[in-house]
């Protein structure tokens, strides 16, 4: 047997001759075949003939099937040769064509050896090695053709990885049980990581602000018409109907309404940034879809081979799956932001669940469906209230008028709404109204509270004898009698001693400011601002350190503070809105250096510098410890700071702390001491945001002067003392 590979051209000629004979069905082609072809078993001599059985003639159908199978094998071998032929352009990308066999060493490929052993064998002897070589060549050729013809996604990915010179790792599932060793689970196909893809992915992983400046190409790819209408614009704003449940009306109407709670605001901002990044990726994906579809159309028009077309189709399918996952991610971000806002609303959990389950509409946060669901819930609640009122208006057994042997307790209004079940709140007589007012008086309500109830009833009642209920003679007499029975109690004595507290503020632990802890510094600043401004605790809590709300005098003589522009005072009038607080610096006199220790400007400057490193909010007062360190302080906690400062001052002086001290008492103490020192009433009312001096004289003025002024007559005069 001559196994030396033949020249390339001679092999092609002989293969073409064999193919022609196979197609024409020439039986002489079988004369040059070896006796034992791979995959065919031939009975040995001495079988049926040795037993005397007559020899059988081979059927024509068996010969035809062998010729057809041989022709198919030749076609496969020819396809492989043409694919490997240099200069044809049909080889796989990345493979180098073989050099001419005449100029190089002999190439011992399986296909040449199989051809030499099968059809170009000059000797007629059978060789076991040639049969083994033929079996290897046939199995190799069939395996290669099967890999090329595999149209599954795994096969296409293997082909793509082979073009890149990469191997597809196979994950061995391992042995799951000792009883199922016969049919092990197949190996799982996995795609190796692309180094370039992972590099670009991790470029902004550690720092989300890295590479934030978009290039010209990036802006071109991200440019998209009507992006907001398809949900690829910026994060949609919160609808005013939802924001009004949480924010003030003027804040809810703003296009960029923000959460009132600081921690929720941080979460909301992060969700907005994530949605904007996903939308930008979606706009770039829109340009990529046009590029991929254009490439696929070009390949179809060029009539490329099925391998390249399969790669294009697989790329389109992978991009479509990635687009679906991007849409799912953006929908989840919208639903998460919904939950952030709904968690701060006063809605019931059932209503929140309904609003969360509303399908996400591109370009909208809650959408029209959510607003309709909210309106339906409001109508249902109104219907329940109407039905409840109808049930209360039904007749019921009358109450006993006589005394009842029950333990005495604080009486409450008999029925919701104040009137009896059978009474009409719009047309009821004056006797029913007087009965209701008497029940309120018996329950301990004051005269001012009764007047509020009368005003509320008069706003809805149709009137009696052409006048309102409040102007009726009997109602007026009742209110006058209630005032005599329970006159208003005005506290004329101060609840705590201001000089004692100021003395403690100039001693440790409140001094020196450069060494005290942040807790004591915060308490001192809160107390000094409350006592020097006479403002409500809500107005102090609304102060801000923003540049527009805090201005220091250029010469350092003082500071001006404004509340946050979103703050609404208790009295909504032009004279009360956005009123500044002006503080002046105390100059230290030579004979009394303690005055500088109580300077609010000095303490405020030290507090702002101490909280600069932990501050997470522009609000002036922030938490000094705990999990909310650096976050905005609530009104309740600010009130506790002022009360704790007063209580600690009494404890430091060895006196028992006063009972019932409230932060609101600083307004009466501060204004009363200011009036005693000669400050005009107009200036006091302007600082405390009072419209008239009557408010100060009736409700806030207390006696801070000498408790025993007439004791001065018992003291010796200056002339007597000299004698």
UniProtKB/TrEMBL annotation:
UniProt entry keywords in alphabetical sequence: DNA recombination, DNA-binding
Key word DNA damage present: no
Annotated protein name in UniProt: Tyr recombinase domain-containing protein
Highest taxon of the lineage: Eukaryota
Lineage: Eukaryota, Metazoa, Chordata, Craniata, Vertebrata
GO MF annotations in UniProt: DNA binding
Region entry Disordered, spans: 26-63, 87-109, 382-420
One annotated GO biological process: DNA recombination
């Amino acid at each position: 047997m001559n196994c030396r590979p033949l020249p390339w051209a001679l092999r092609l000629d002989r293969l073409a001759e064999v193919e022609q004979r196979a197609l024409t069905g020439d039986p002489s082609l079988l004369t040059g075949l070896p006796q034992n072809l791979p995959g065919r078993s031939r009975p040995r001599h001495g079988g049926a003939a040795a037993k005397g059985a007559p020899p059988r003639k081979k059927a024509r159908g068996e010969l035809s099937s062998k010729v057809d199978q041989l022709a198919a094998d030749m076609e496969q071998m020819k396809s492989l040769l043409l694919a490997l032929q240099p200069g044809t352009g049909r080889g796989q990308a990345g493979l180098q064509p073989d050099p001419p066999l005449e100029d190089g060493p002999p190439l011992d490929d399986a296909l040449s050896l199989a051809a030499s052993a099968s059809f170009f064998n000059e000797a007629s002897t059978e060789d076991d090695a040639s049969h083994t070589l033929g079996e290897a060549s046939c199995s190799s050729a069939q395996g290669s053709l099967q890999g090329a013809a595999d149209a599954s996604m795994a096969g296409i990915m293997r082909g793509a990885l082979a073009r890149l010179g990469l191997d597809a790792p196979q994950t061995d599932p391992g042995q799951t049980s000792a009883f199922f060793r016969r049919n092990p689970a197949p190996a799982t196909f996995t795609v190796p990581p692309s180094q370039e893809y992972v590099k670009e992915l991790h470029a902004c992983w550690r720092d989300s602000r890295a590479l934030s400046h978009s290039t010209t190409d990036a802006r071109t790819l991200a440019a998209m018409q009507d992006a907001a209408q398809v949900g690829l614009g910026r994060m949609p704003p919160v609808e005013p109907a939802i924001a009004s449940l949480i924010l003030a009306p003027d804040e809810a109407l703003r296009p960029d309404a923000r959460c009132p709670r600081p921690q929720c605001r941080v979460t909301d901002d992060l969700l907005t940034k994530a949605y904007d990044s996903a939308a930008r990726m979606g706009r770039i994906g829109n340009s990529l879809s046009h590029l991929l579809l254009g490439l696929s159309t070009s390949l179809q028009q060029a009539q490329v081979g099925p391998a390249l077309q399969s790669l294009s189709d697989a790329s389109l399918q992978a991009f479509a799956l990635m687009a679906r996952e991007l849409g799912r991610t953006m929908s989840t971000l919208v639903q998460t932001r919904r939950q952030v806002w709904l968690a701060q609303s006063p809605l019931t959990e059932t209503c929140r669940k309904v609003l969360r389950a509303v399908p996400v509409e591109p370009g909208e946060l809650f959408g029209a469906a959510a607003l309709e669901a909210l309106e339906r819930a409001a109508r249902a609640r109104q219907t329940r209230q109407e039905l409840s009122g109808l049930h209360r208006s039904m007749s019921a057994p009358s109450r006993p008028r006589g005394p009842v042997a029950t333990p005495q307790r604080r009486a409450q209004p008999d029925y919701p709404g104040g009137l009896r079940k059978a009474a009409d709140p719009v047309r009821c007589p004056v006797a029913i109204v007087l009965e209701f007012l008497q029940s309120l008086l018996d329950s301990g309500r004051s005269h001012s509270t009764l007047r509020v109830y009368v005003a509320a009833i008069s706003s809805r009642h149709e009137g009696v004898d052409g006048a309102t209920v409040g102007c009726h003679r009997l109602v007026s007499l009742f209110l006058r009698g209630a005032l005599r029975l329970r006159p208003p109690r005005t506290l004329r004595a101060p609840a705590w001693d201001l000089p004692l507290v100021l003395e403690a503020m100039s001693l440790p632990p409140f001094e020196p400011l450069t060494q005290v802890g942040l807790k004591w510094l915060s308490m001192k600043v809160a107390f000094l601002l409350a006592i020097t401004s006479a403002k409500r605790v809500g107005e102090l809590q609304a102060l801000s350190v923003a540049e527009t709300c805090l201005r220091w005098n250029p010469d350092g003589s003082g500071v001006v503070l404004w509340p946050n522009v979103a703050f609404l005072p208790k009295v909504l009038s032009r004279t009360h809105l956005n009123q500044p607080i002006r503080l002046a610096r105390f100059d230290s006199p030579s004979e009394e250096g303690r005055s500088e220790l109580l300077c609010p400007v000095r303490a405020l400057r030290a507090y702002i510098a101490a909280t600069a490193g932990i501050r997470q909010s522009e609000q002036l007062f922030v938490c000094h410890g705990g999990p909310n360190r650096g976050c905005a302080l609530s009104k309740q906690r600010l009130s506790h700071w002022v009360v704790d400062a007063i209580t600690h001052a009494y404890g430091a002086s060895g006196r028992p702390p006063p009972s019932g001290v409230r932060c609101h008492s600083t307004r009466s103490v501060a204004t009363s001491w200011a009036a005693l020192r000669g400050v005009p009433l107009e200036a006091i009312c302007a600082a405390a945001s009072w419209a008239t001096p009557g408010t100060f004289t009736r409700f806030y003025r207390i006696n801070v002067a000498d408790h025993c002024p007439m004791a001065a007559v018992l003291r010796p005069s200056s002339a007597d003392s000299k004698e």
